[in-house]
Structure formats: C-alpha cells, structure tokens
Amino acid sequence: MRYFYILILLVAFNTHATSWKEHKVDDPIKSGSECLVNNVRSFGGYVYDWPSKYDQIFFPYTSSLAIWFCNDSGFIAFIGDFDNITAAEKTKISEYLQENPPLNIKSLFSKLKLLEKIYSFRTLSAESSNTQKRVFAYLYEQINEFETANKFRSAALRDIYQLLNTDLATHKRLEYFYIAANYERQLGNIVNSKLALSRLLKEIESIKDDELKSFGNYLLNLSKETPFIEPGGKLAPLLEKDTTPKPEDEIYYLVKKFPEACHEELQKFFNNIKPMFTSHFNHTLIEKNIVELLNIRRVLIDTGSIPHSTLADYHRYEGIEPDLNEKGESWKSKSSSMCRSEVNEFYDIFLLESSRHIANVVSMIATELTGVKSNSDYKDTEITLEDIDQLLVKKSMFYLYCPAQDYDVTEYEVCPERSMPYKNIFIKLKADILKSPLKVNDRDGIQRLFAGFSSLDI
Fold first, then answer.
1. How far apart are the C-alpha atoms of 343 and 269, rounded to whole Å?
2. How many separate domains does the chain show?
3. pTM of the prediction?
4. Does 317 map to a domain?
C-alpha cells in the first residue's frame, strides 16, 4: 500500500512549483557577519522526474538558488554546507578570499567557478565528492558548458568504479551502476555502458528486500532510456513519443496481489482514474488559494484585523468523491464477470486514496497562508493587508505567467493557455483589486499582473 500512496502523492503534487524562503545564516569565515541565503519552502514529487534524474541528482541541487554565497567574506557553498569546516580549511579559504576577493558573483557560471575553488580547500568523503561532481556536471550543462560538464562526469565515473570496489550499501551499488551506464554511453563507450547495465540487472536479480527491489526496478525502468543517450551534448536522451500502450510499472505493487488475468483491466481503470488526481489537485489549489486570499483580504479591509484561526479554516473543501464515484461506478459496470470482485476491491482502494488526496489538498492550500501567519508571529506583529496582497500577487503571477528560463535570470511570459481554465477566478480578483487597490509597493509587478489579465481578455 505504501508504494501506491507514494504514487498518488507524486501524481497529486505534480504542480511544477518549487518555492524558496530567504533567511540569514552565520558566515563561517567572517566572524560576526551573516549571509542572506535561500532555503527550500516547498516542492513536489515531480522534481524526481526532471532531467537531472539521469545524473541521479535532484532538487534542490538542480537550482542556482541552492548555492549559498556570503557577500561580506566571499565564501560560497552548496545549500546547508556551511558546517563541518575544519580550522585548517577555514584558514586556507580565508587566505584565498583575502588575496582574491570575489567580484560580481551573480551568474551561475561565476558561482560554479568560485565553488570549485573553495571546495578544493575542503575535504569530502568519497561518496559526497562523487555526488558533488555530478551536481557540477548537471549545472554546467544547464549553461551549455558541455565540455566542462563532461569532464566532471568523467571524473565522477572514475570515482564510481573505485567506489564499486569498496563495501558499499546495496542501494549505492545500484545507483552507481546506473550512472556508470549513462556516463559511459554519453562519453561514447557503448560496450562499457552495456556492461554496466548487465551488472545492474544482475545486482537487482539477487535482491531479496522488497524496498531495495523497488528501487532497483525504478533504475531498471529508467535504464530503458539509456540506449538513447547521445555522446557529448546533454546527458538527457532525446526520446521520441511512443504511442504504443505499455504496462504501467507504477502500479505493479498494487496489482501483483490480483490474478494476472485481471491486470489489464486494472491497468485500464488506473489510466482512467489517474488524471483526475492531477487535474483536480491543480485546479483546486489555484482557485481555492486565490479565493481564500480574497476572503481574508476582504475581512482585513472591512475590520482592520483577522484572527489567526481563520488561516487554518478549510472545512468547506469537498474533495473529488462525487466525480470519482460517478466514474468508478461507470467503469465497474463495464468490468468483466471474471474480474468483477477484483475490480471492486481495486476501486475501494481508490476511494481510500481519494480521502488521503483531500487531506493533501487541504495541507497544500494551508501552506502559504500558514507561512504568512508564522512570519507575523516571528515579527510579533499582526497580519497586514500588505502581507496578504503581496502573497496574492505572487500566487496570481505564478498562474498567469510561465518561466521562459529556469536558471540565473528567469524571464516570464504570459501563458493564457495555462491560466484560461481559471479565468473566472481572475475576473473576481481584478474586480476586487479595482474596488480596493493593492497595498504593495511593486508597481512593475502590478502592471504585469494587469498585463496577465489582458492576455485573458479580462
């Protein structure tokens, strides 16, 4: 059951939205100084399906925001890696930065170059060093520094073969064989790539533990794309869309307890119901989030204050049971007599998962507003109209605009095809803020908000 629940989470949280929050940390090099850095605020299971999976590198390390830089001292490191620096390492780093003060460290390229230098003074474990090389490879690739990226992959590959001769945990052995297969092929060594894949398969076949077997099957499924990796350039393979129906590996752990003769019917049911979670989840998050913010905004305007308890009141959310029941009953009526009982049991599991889905929607809706509450508690101040309006603009812009570039300099383009399903909500939003102007200082942001409205003919 836990595997199926993980699947539903991955489907439900596929909103493709990561968020960050700035905070201050102590500068490990300059005593008494602080560094303004970013910490992850929220993300979803979709990050594990990004192209970085071919390097087995995952968010937040795929983002330039996960690089922490101290303006005062010039120290730089990956997110959370400001501790465990020895006195000797600090001395070497401090001396280097004094002799070579970093200038204009803004682009991803400049950050990566400084990271390389600073980490050259630090001692990492063999496994951590290997992971870091793969992070460097992925990030350099994002700025089209393919030669540099592949140098890091070559170095990581050499390390992997050395590590495979040590006493590694099983999951690491599996991961390393998979990465080796990808890197060998990307470097043009096709025979070595096939050999790594065969060793991966052999390792998986010998596993007895169910969870390790699950991880092995995940890598085995990914490895089907390895033969499509082209030497040089980007690691991610260019895959042609295959319209041939294929069995869903995702539901293996759910259907395996049912007779094999019913697997195809259960697969069809899964394919029929699965989209409801993603589309419903996304639609609900967008509409409910903006509606709740407008409700809170109206109370603040009318009364001047709002109880903190209001920020956690989502009892009006009804979930997807009506639609799910209608679709499920319709599908059950078409099931074969041979698999009717199996179909009914499978359907009952989906009803249980829908209730969990509701809980997840409620939790996600509460996240941003809870952040506003926590921030006001931290400041020991009341929630203000400006707090709500800033969040309202931020959420609305996210659904009115699409990122055209996802790295150092992110540009945004209006994308009405994305926001059109929510036109009625944005009509309500525009009417509200025309009646009571937004209390935010970002005039450019407000202009862009109205430009987004115009793209929907509002």
1. 8
2. 1
3. 0.56
4. yes
